Amino acid sequence: MDINIKVGGEAGFGIMASGLLLIRTFSRGGLKAITTNDYPSLIRGGHNVLLVRVADHEIFGVDNYVDLLIALNRETVDLHKDEISEGAAILYDGESFQVQPGDFAKPVNLFPVPLMKLAKEHGGDVLMRNTVALGATLALVDFDIKYLESVVKDQFGRKGDEVVAKNNQLAQAGFDYIKQNFPKGFNKKFTVSATPANKQMVLTGSEALGLGAIAAGMKFFAAYPMTPINGLLYYLAGVAEKTGFVYKQPEDEIAAINMAIGASFAGVRSMVATSGGGFSLMVEGTSLAGMLEQPVVIIFGQRPGPATGLPTWTTQSDLHFVLNAGQGEFPRLVLAPGDIEEAFELTAEAFNLAEKYQTPTFVLVDKYICESYFSIDLAILAEKKVSIERGKIVSEAEQTKEVEFPRYQLTDDGISPRPIPGRKSGVFRENSDEHDEWGYSIEDGPLTKKMIEKRMRKMEMAQQEVPAPTLYGVKTAPHTLVGWGSTKGPVLEAMRQLTEQGKGELVNYLHLNWINPFPAMQVREVLSNAKHVIDIEGNHNSQMIDWIQVKTGIKITDRINKYDGRPFFPSEIIEAIKKYS
Amino acid sequence: MSTIADFKTAFMPNWCPGCGDFGIWGALKNALVEKGWGPADFCAVYGIGCHGHMVNFLKSYAIETLHGRPIAVAQGIRLANHKLPVIIVAGDGDTFGEGTNHLVHIARRNVQATMIVHDNQVYGLTTGQTAPTAQKGFKTKSTPHGVLEEAINPVAIALAAGATFVARGFAGDIPGLAKLMVAGFNHPGFAFIDVLQPCVTFNHINTYQWYREHIYTLDTAHDVTSRAKAFEKALEWGPKVPTGIFYKIEKPTYEAQTPQLNESSLVEQTLPPKNLQALMEKFV
């Protein structure tokens, strides 16, 4: 059983917060849930929508139809009436506006609940009608209200018992109203086991990135506010003091990356986060990190461009940008996590790679994964062993043997021992001019050549540790989808739904999350053996097709693209594959 | 304890003979000896310009950054290791062309660092285009008919941005400049020192002789704790040009106001933090 719940209303009325309460409630009751949001680039006014998909089985993406519409205003009905599935439930405040069955193309069940009236009767304000709606929703699907009560307690506990009690009262009022007036409820219901087996986390991709950075021992984080990395910024700013790292909001992204380079030079793990526009300002800094051979982790949250584009929507259109930004040739590493687990794991890994190869390392994500909420078993993240590998940082004893330490020693693997400033001896210099082994500026031809080769040798070393990409599904499928980053979720969800329909062998999926270095050999093998390959990306130009061709010589011709700012929906993917069948 | 020889590298300066950079370089070494700092006791952060070549002529912990960016890099170093003194060596293009934004913000943050600006009104390294500090009417290769803009006033900008130590020195007065630098090192906060520096190749107006005829040193009658008086002095540019300390007050540094740095510097703290499990539980 799974249900797609859409909550819509005017921006600024707490829809996001209510949606989070709802997904946490379901998650505590042992269900799986994913929440995505659509919102305009406004503080107040405009239309806000939250989609909560909840199921009693594993899910990987959200659908583009609605089983239960919670309409906090009439506009929500007008805008989303065509997304309704047959027999959908419409929950709305019947005393605030009218809704008729004829408003919808398909038959629906109307559940008018006097949200405002009930909120006021129990001493709540206009924002609290959302809480009434939450209670009513749980009643409709027969979900135990005690899970909401426990979430409310944790969420509002620090505001005092009175606030907790009032919220519970309001939820109960909505719950009771449905039970009394619509005892049959909605025809889709959840039967919940008494004690859910596993503790589940509910978190956004941004928060998983943040936890990954913390697990890796990040000590310095600089980020200028920008959608879609603000969630990461808020999370890390909130826990910085108690965790023991510094978050600095700088004057611009130029300062952000240069501060991070400075902190890294001083010996700590450092990170920046931004989107395409902000990264445009970080480009010279990325090149600087490449030349100085200074590790820095760059979280790049994609949103549609060019220019300001669609600031609050999603895309995968900055792959080429990340792979090519910066003057000169220098090694850069690019990882692209596809879900919560990968966001955590690959961010932690990015710090190891950055320090091992002493070069800028990217974690390429997007608005969809950054801002959507996912439920995941706590144990999956908590039991991950994050190792901290700091590469060739030299010991104090080693560094202080001589007055001066050669920062850029020519080595077989291209990686030079890395000293730390502030020690009693062993001074060294890093230099943005081409330099000799001691960091002194040079213009000498042969030595310049050696230094460029030394830096690029690091890329060859990194190449050796690329893991094989995962091929999901049956090996012999007639179609092979190739995708990267957050496309993983919608594709796996499409495959799950196909399996449910008995067509699980129609397609498999090659997921790429190490972009540079790239698993060229394994990808070449999978693609050569595949019966029919389709590239799938959230952009117009199929940028990964170019990269795969560069790395493997194979040119993929069939492709699925989406570039309207929305993530892929499983039904769209299934439809697109069927065109080739 | 240190000596001038401790800072010697295998390279001799490649500045033009008579360049003001020599005076600043000499004053800096004198100031370091006076302060008792050896090459391992501080970190120099350079921008790009003729001054930036000093990375090759002064042995110390050092990082040569990009044009305009030494201030940003210096702040990252300070936040990661606030026990390591930082000296920012920058040019007038670094500071008032590409890096003005960074200057304004380090000043208001009061991150502890001594900033030495090589102010010669021209871009020497790129062969003599105008700098933002050039006087109106100044003719250069990029302004053959003379600069149309008013000159940037470094001292006034630093004051307006909230710097807690603002001074002006002269590259031709090595003892006086060294004294200002030591005062900067000793200042608990952001210390800004604009250094008037002749460019013997591209600036034939603001020569050693011109400066000697025009500058005077602020005396004890000047109240360095008065921002208003400091502004008044900052606006003087002809017939006489004041040098010395314009303004000096104490305010908490950014580092001191960051609780994470109370016990130890970030670089001294062990990895990873102990609260990861608790942070994860928060999401349940």
Question: What this model shows, in words?
Answer:
The complex is a heterodimer of chains A (581) and B (284). In chain A, the strands form three sheets. Chain A has an eight-stranded mixed β-sheet with strand order 6-5-4-1-3-2-14-7, sandwiched between helices. Chain A has 581 residues and is an alpha/beta fold. Helix content of chain A is 39%, strand content 19%. Chain A is built from 20 helices and 21 strands. In chain A, β20 (533-537), α19 (543-552) and β21 form a beta-alpha-beta unit. With 284 residues, chain B is an alpha/beta fold. Chain B has one domain (7-281): 3-Layer(aba) Sandwich (Rossmann fold), CATH 3.40.50. In chain B, 30% of the residues lie in helices and 17% in strands. Chain B has nine helices and ten strands. The longest helix of chain B is centred in the N-terminal third of the chain and has 16 residues, at 20-35. At the A-B interface, β7, α7, α8, α9 and α10 of A face β2, α2, α4 and α9 of B. β15 (429-431) of chain A pairs parallel with β2 of chain B.
